[in-house]
Amino acid sequence: MVAEKQSKFKWGMAIDIDKCTGCQACVLACQAENNIPINTEDNFKDARGIEWIRVERYWEGEFPDVKAKFIPILCMHCDNAPCEPVCPVYASYHTVEGLNVQVYNRCVGTRYCANGCPYLVRFFNYWEPEWPESFQNQLNPDVTVRSRGIMEKCTMCIQRIRRGTRKAKRDNNEVMDGDISPACVQACPTDAMVFGNQKDPNSKINKMKNDKRSYTLLDHLKTNSNVWYLAKVDEDTDTHSKEGGH
Amino acid sequence: MSSLDNTKSNKVSRRKFMGLLGGTALGAVIFEACGVPEQEYIIQSPVDMPEDYVKGEDNWYATTSDTSEHGESIIVRIMQGRAKKIEGNPDFPNTLGKHRAVTETEIQTLYHPDRISGPLYRKTSSGNHRPISWKEAELMIKESLSAKGNKSIITKSLRGMNKGIIDQFANEKGLKHLTLSSLHDYSMYESSKEVFGTKSLPYFDIKNSDLIISFGLDFLGTWGPVEYENQFGNFRGKDHRGYMIQIEPRMSLTAAAADTWLCSDPGREGLIALMIADQIIKSGKGNSANIDKFKELTGISDISELNNSSASLDAKSVGSATGIDYHKLEKLTEKLISHLESNDHSKILFLSGGATSGYPNSKSINSLVLGLNYLTGSVNKEGGIILNPDNVFDNIEINGETLNLPQSSSWNSLDYWNEEIENWKSGSQDLIIVRGVDLLNEIPGKSVTTEAFNNSKMSIGFGTIINDTLERCDLILPDNTSMQSWGSDIPEPRTGYQVFAFGQPVASAPYTRDGSKKLYDSKSFYNVLLSQMENGLSGLTYMDLCKEISNKIYESSSYNNSSIVASNSDDFFKGIMARGGWWNVNKKSSGPKNPKINISNVVTNINRNNNFHLIPFKSHVFGDGNSMSTPWAQGSPDPLTSITWDSWVEINTKTAEGLKIKQGDILKITSNSGSIELPAYLHPGVPSNSVSVPIGLGKQNFTRYASERGSNIVELIDVSKLNEDGNVPWNSTSVSIEKTKNKKKISKFEGTVPAIAVEPGVPILTVGPNESAEEGFHRAHEEHLDHTFGDHFNDKKHNEEESH
Amino acid sequence: MQQRRQLDEKQINRELLNGNLATPKWYYPVMGVLGVGVLIGFATILYMFNRGLGVTGLARPVYWGLFITTFVFWVGISHAGIMISAILRLTQAEWRRPVTRAAELLTVFSLLTALFFPLMHAGRPWRIAYWLIPYDWARGIWPNVRSPLFWDPIAIGTYLTGSTLFLFVALIPDLAILRDRTTGIKKTIYSMLALGWRGNPRQWQLQVVAGILLSALMLPIFVSVHSIVSWDFAVTPAVEGWHSTIFAPYFVIGAVHSGVSAVVTMMCLMRWLWKWNNYIRPEHFDALARLLIIVATAWLAFTFLELIFSLYGRDAPEIALRELQIFTWPWNLIFITFLLTGYVIPVGCWLFKSCRNNIAIMFWTSILVNVGMWLERFLIIVPGLARKQVFVYTWEGYWPSPVEWVILVWSFAWVSFLMLLFARFFPLVPLFEAKESQVFTTEMKVGRATVPMVIRE
Ligand code: SF4
Ligand code: SF4
Ligand code: SF4
Ligand code: SF4
Ligand code: SF4
Known about the structure:
The structure holds 3 protein chains of 3 kinds.
Chain A lengths: L1 H5 L4 E6 L8 H9 L7 H5 L8 E7 L6 E7 L9 H4 L5 E3 L5 E3 L9 H5 L6 E2 L26 E2 L5 H13 L12 H5 L5 E5 L6 H6 L4 E2 L11 E4 L1 E2 L13
Parallel strand pairs in A: 1-10
Antiparallel strand pairs in A: 1-8, 2-3, 4-5, 6-7, 9-10
Chain B lengths: L1 H8 L1 H13 L3 H8 L4 H5 L15 E6 L8 E7 L2 E7 L12 H4 L1 H5 L9 E2 L8 E2 L2 H13 L3 E6 L4 H14 L2 E4 L6 H11 L6 E2 L6 E5 L11 H11 L5 E5 L5 H5 L2 E3 L6 H15 L4 H11 L4 H4 L8 H8 L3 H17 L5 E5 L9 H14 L9 E2 L8 E4 L2 E4 L9 H12 L3 E7 L3 H4 L3 H9 L3 E6 L4 H4 L3 E4 L8 E3 L7 E7 L21 H8 L9 H14 L13 H11 L1 E8 L23 E6 L13 H4 L14 E4 H6 L6 E6 L4 E9 L6 E5 L8 H4 L26 E11 L22 E2 L5 H31 L1
Parallel strand pairs in B: 6-7, 6-16, 9-10, 9-12, 10-11, 16-17, 17-18, 22-26, 23-25
Antiparallel strand pairs in B: 1-2, 2-3, 4-5, 4-18, 8-13, 14-15, 19-20, 20-21, 22-27, 24-25, 24-27
Helix pairs in contact in B: 1-2, 2-24, 3-24, 8-22, 9-17, 12-15, 12-16, 12-17, 13-17, 15-16, 18-20, 23-24
Chain C lengths: L8 H8 L1 H4 L5 H25 L14 H12 L1 H12 L9 H23 L2 H8 L15 H34 L2 H11 L6 H34 L12 H28 L7 H31 L3 H12 L3 H20 L2 H4 L2 H28 L15 H24 L5 H6 L4 E6 L2 E6 L3
Antiparallel strand pairs in C: 1-2
The site of one iron/sulfur cluster has 2 residues of chain A, from loops.
């Protein structure tokens, strides 16, 4: 706790779902950045596809008054993470910078953390991930390639955070807002996603999390999520229908 | 020591390139933005080891994207010569640091395990291919080019220098240059250039617009540069959240993102446009100068003349004619009029194209809808249509040769192609060179085209991987990907000002693991063509030509106050390469020249003899299917259905229930042209009178990842009647569907339960205007309790009361 | 009420050692069949370790399935020992005597088998050995004591140790008898195991006291083992249907239900296989069935309470879960089967004395109970995961793969195999208990307590 208070950083993300078009750029960007195993046809059929960030699509209403709404869901890096206490080996643990990280080397594959996580953002390697030799040229050397039997999940692109903070240190600079950007945030064409340091009072993330449209998922579970969502806007919503009715 | 070998093997381009970067501070601009300090460039180069071979250090280099039709610039993360990650070029006007899902897959194309490893040749059309050397291959090309006869070169639609080189080449060697348009937005390109009197597409100022009414243009999906998606984010995010209405017969990503989606019966959209024109003029809220301009351009004296379909244009009639609830149309006009009233500069944007370009009369509809922008005064105004200036120069002189640089794409019509194929069939074709087009799968009538293609005496195909067309070529030549070659483009649509895009080799040639052998012995297509030429261009490489353009820009007046400042033309070129291109925000269009709105025939009836309209579409990730050879692309879920690795037919849930069709049932879809079988995907977003199928799949031979996946929709398209420009009216086919006995487990990310929220507000919360998240939750939760429990309890109470 | 026939000691010794001193005809064929099952099972397990957990039917979001179900099932069965040996002993239920050892044995073997399942479930057991056994003091990374998965092995380990000791202490007098009746190598081994038992009063006194102390020590385990197992689920607020505060007693009572039923099944088999009609008598079944009626009814009450508590919150995902669990095909079939087999049919039968005294009926009803109890665990574990929170988009189903089914069957073959192996070398019914019930019982003072005990053999 003390270390957390002393740390200069507390990372967080905000996602404006009013902007999200469901384009999947974040999903593929994450896959490319983080050496996520190739999702084969069978993986999808078996519900074993791995997407550290996934874009959920919900239907509302019936044709012609039908809406499709999208929400990207990644690890919430909960301050009070239900995935952490259940892990018998501390493979799921919290850093002083407010990130929930996964230590692949320790993970014994109980999948308890995945049950514990209410957001379903933890993915298990049921098979040994394989890449044809030529594809191995692409693997990001900053990110561990996981083996089978290992739980994996969004790391907030810890490797980019490290590079960013290291560079600032090397250049004797402060880490400025926007200097560091996880792959999904970087890719997001609509700028629906924003990443930043909550301890920087002027950061965009602080502005967004204090927006009146901001909410967190499954707030009632008190996981103290570090990913905020900005509600979708429907200008045609009748916000006053309740009044008078009662 | 393989890394050193690598270095040597691409010494020329790599070292040269490194040198270019080292000298310029401007070159560091982009890298600064991406995380590597500029002083690191100064350390490299004195030794025979470029700095990108320093272990653990990465660099980002700019080049152009292969998967984009719009000349988008990307940056590629390189470590020790290997490409690791692609991102949008943060500097470049039409990417702004953003990229699409599919752009990411270009790295897998670069390292594709099934890339063609070297030139292949076969003697007879039935024989197998055998590897030959580039020397032999180039000799063969030379021979077949020097022979007299009918010769054609087929490519994607090209602009700028690429088109210039091909034209020069075709001219010199006596070839015909053909481009394909089968499912392309040809009519939108043509009508927009006509309506706005420009040489290239205009630019849509989505960001600053307050109200967007789009007729079928899926600019958030597959239409336009990724920047439009970024603009949409700003359109939503600014102080006055913009309102968007999408009129389209299918729920595209743009329709899903719109505030209102009006699902019009196919072909009837023109009526809505007429209604809008009618209402604006009648309301008296429009600016009279604008109205006069509109009348002048359409060549009508009175609004009633607009409507040669002579249908009545009140909301009710239009509603019943288009299949849209007329209340929604009333709301649309209300919204429009109130916007016209409230702003003296209305910031209304009318868009057309995409789905609307798939009708026989698409050119007229597009023309009318785009023309509506004159009526609201949205042309060349902030928040409206911004015209693009003419290019700085239309051609350059090199060694006495004039290279044409057209700034817009064009295609040959299907009419034209049919004639061509007829010729091939007759056996009079001597040479076909094809690059980047899988024409057998893209032209309706695969068996006819295949037979005709096989009749050509010689066929030469360039490509990185084998597809159905390449497979049938006598000579198959491995091409470089854009990450390995020089490139240039004039982005289209441009961003309202002058822009050139440039590409360069950024990754070294992939080697085997032990470093002993190059994995793919490939050469750049344009360099191979240039090497065949005997005129003034002979001896030049693509890079030399890039440099010529660079010099030309440097000398032109447009150079002033542009994106790059350099003290000499060499530095200028380095700067261009570092930033991925050159642009000058001050070079803008002054206004339309000879605009014209041609609205001969804006309303049509699409026949639905076979019960269902067929609405083919480009899935956001799959695109036209040509970048679907990689496992990343195949494994990337289609946004609306989450389907991967396959194609499917979308059908309305209720309609399907009526026909006893379940998720995964294989349906036989039959049109007048043919029939295909696909698994059914049910969702509530499909109109009850249509079915939709993604295009681009169903290739027979397309690498281990993509062969025989899905079915090719082109087989179904009814081409008995072409549209106004002789192109494929791909949204005008009527099909019947029949349930077969077969079933299939659909490969998708989504789970097994229809994704309808268990309770409103979770996980997606929707708030009304000015409502806070907390208030929204409260409202949603009360609705939920009322809906799930309240009614029940109330009913009970009610009954009890009654029984007393 | 417990009628018994007087038997002399010789007859007791002869009859109860009939499986140890000679081999019954059916023994080798049965062991052969079980042995093949066991081998196939181990081969399947090795195949799974080699290929990876991809060969199971597990996926997102159902990360736990048949293995954990079966783990809970076998831990539940293991409660046979505690109930019979500890609780009934301390409450001096006289009819428990002939089955104490079999129950203890079942406990030991089912616990051993249960332990296999988490190891298989994790896919790479060697990693568990590496990280969960804190061997490296210098590294300073200890297992996470907040995780119920840390306490599972501790609780089960304690229970296993206690049960093994208990089994052994009770076995000593019988080992001595076997020592006296065998020759050669067997004699040597039995002598070593008999620890010099001479049957003198002091030895008897110590043996009995040890038994009682162990019984008392096992009592907290009675509460803890299945409570801790239940916490594997109950501490997981993310999973609807898991995070219930009544899980601990609910699981414990369920475990007793299945454990005691398993004892009944075993008693039937013992009667049939070794013809021990003199020792395992209808009155024993009658008493057990009466006990089971109470246990089962208490357990059923918990089942419904759990359901009602969860619905009380009117939480949408919770309602969706229950809808799946109770009304959606094929879960509705599983649910009905579970209710019928776990309660309605068995308890319905046990209400009638004629059924309680009918060995065949008792056999089949007790089997039904455990079918139901396995389904109960499946119904608790899987649907909750399949309907996780509000993320309908990711809701999925789960069905075990052939590999998992084979391993399930293996576990039964494995336990039976071990039981029969034991029965070949040691008496399944404690001779001294059988004799004790024939003779006078009295009480004596041990310290300040008065304990029931036997005077001598
Ligand atoms: S799967 Fe790995 S990270 Fe998760 S709880 Fe088990 S050991 Fe910990
Ligand atoms: S290297 Fe990583 S896994 Fe290994 S001990 Fe250090 S932190 Fe743990
Ligand atoms: S979202 Fe899930 S995985 Fe991430 S910290 Fe929270 S509980 Fe853990
Ligand atoms: S933050 Fe990084 S790891 Fe997490 S979802 Fe985004 S790209 Fe993936
Ligand atoms: S990249 Fe952005 S817009 Fe696209 S799906 Fe992800 S969050 Fe949504």
